Amino acid sequence: MTDAPHNAPHAPVLLAEVIEALSPGPGDVVIDATFGAGGYTRAILATGAQVIGLDRDPTVQPHADAVAKDFPRQFQLIRTPFSGLAGAFAESGKAKLDGAVFDIGVSSMQLDQAERGFSFMRDGPLDMRMSDEGDTAADLVNGWDHGPLAHIFKLYGEERQSGRVATAILRRRVERPFTRTLDLAEVVEKALGGRRGAPIHPATRVFQALRIAVNDELGELERGLEAAEASLAPGGRLAVVTFHSLEDRIVKNFLTERTGNAPAGSRHAPIAIDPRKPSFTLQFKGAREAGDDERSINPRARSAKLRAAVRTEAPAWASTSGRAAA
């Protein structure tokens, strides 16, 4: 972690587009649901708006302290995953929520900290927790049976040889348990036959799957979106930046449903009329992506997608979270 937390090591992706989507200004209250190093937060605060930052990672505190020092009356940090957005907003004491932004996935700041265990390129404890609570990645690979391990490797990592990897892990852990990141990466690489000129490291998908499972990232995203829906005032703006198809699919489906644009059914079945009124309207169709200039400067921007919507006056829909983790 840098000695100067306000010089954020994690460059916020699609920053200009996010600020345009949120359109914050003096008197507005915006939740930065994934505070991180405070990149989005600082840009929002610079417009005169107030920001409630959320993060479950205790290591972001120095960055939050730096932001609070620069914006003492505009900013507060509440330690919670973004599924706790509604409770955090109530705790803040603010009367009206005008915007919410989500930046989904692991940050470069977390990947760079070997002791966090997110990276297969740096040796560290096999942890992967975004908070300091709950099971670690080591708990999963040393304790789960073949079926559940293969399932998450295929579902969350889209690893085609998920069964082969799970078999290799179970075979090796009989000799000794996994405790280090490079140890697991080596076993996965051998199970998949080495790199063989592959554009990405063979362990990439397995590490992604473990990270998502350890942190319940997809379930958190679903619950976070629903919490934002329940908390945003009419006219409030939602902006979500994703970096993977699994996450983007959840956001796309959520907004498709909540804007009343979900498919009505097949031509062989009666059309079902949904009595619920749309709780959001899209700001623009599809997803916006980073331009060539940003892509050349920031590698994370290459896979980033921004979707944005505006809250209507309709009531929030009933919770449907839990589907992503199935």
From TrEMBL:
MF annotations from Gene Ontology: methyltransferase activity
Positions that bind S-adenosyl-L-methionine: 38-40, 55, 82, 103, 110
Residues covered by region (Disordered): 287-326
Leading EC class: transferase
Cell compartments where the protein resides: Cytoplasm
UniProt keyword annotation of Metal-binding present: no
Compositional bias of kind Basic and acidic residues: 287-297
Domain of life per record: Bacteria
InterPro entries on file: RsmH, SAM-dep_MeTrfase_MraW_recog, SAM-dependent_MTases_sf
Catalysed reaction, written as an equation: cytidine(1402) in 16S rRNA + S-adenosyl-L-methionine = N(4)-methylcytidine(1402) in 16S rRNA + S-adenosyl-L-homocysteine + H(+)
One Pfam family this sequence matches: Methyltransf_5
Enzyme Commission number, as recorded: 2.1.1.199
Protein's GO biological process: methylation
Alphabetic keyword roster: Cytoplasm, Methyltransferase, rRNA processing, S-adenosyl-L-methionine, Transferase
First-listed, main subcellular location of the protein, grouped into a coarse class: cytoplasm
Function recorded in the entry: Specifically methylates the N4 position of cytidine in position 1402 (C1402) of 16S rRNA.
Family: Belongs to the methyltransferase superfamily. RsmH family.
Name this polypeptide is given: Ribosomal RNA small subunit methyltransferase H
